[in-house]
Design goal:
globular, about 55 residues, about 0% strand, mainly alpha
Length: about 55
């Protein structure tokens, strides 16, 4: 469900990108039941698709 939000909500996708990809020095506590690397991969893929869909 969280990975689907990457494709459906641009604000969620942007917040994940800003907080976890661009800010490399931020520590993240482990969240049981959420695979954060998978969510980040989905957000990056959705971001790439959104950028190419516009042009």
């Amino acid at each position: 469900m969280i990975s689907a939000a990457c494709y459906l909500k641009p604000t969620f996708r942007i917040s994940i990108y800003e907080n976890f990809v661009r800010n490399r020095h931020r520590a993240v506590a482990p969240e049981f039941g959420i695979d954060l690397p998978s969510v980040v991969r989905h957000c990056l893929y959705a971001r790439k698709r959104a950028l190419f869909a516009v042009s």
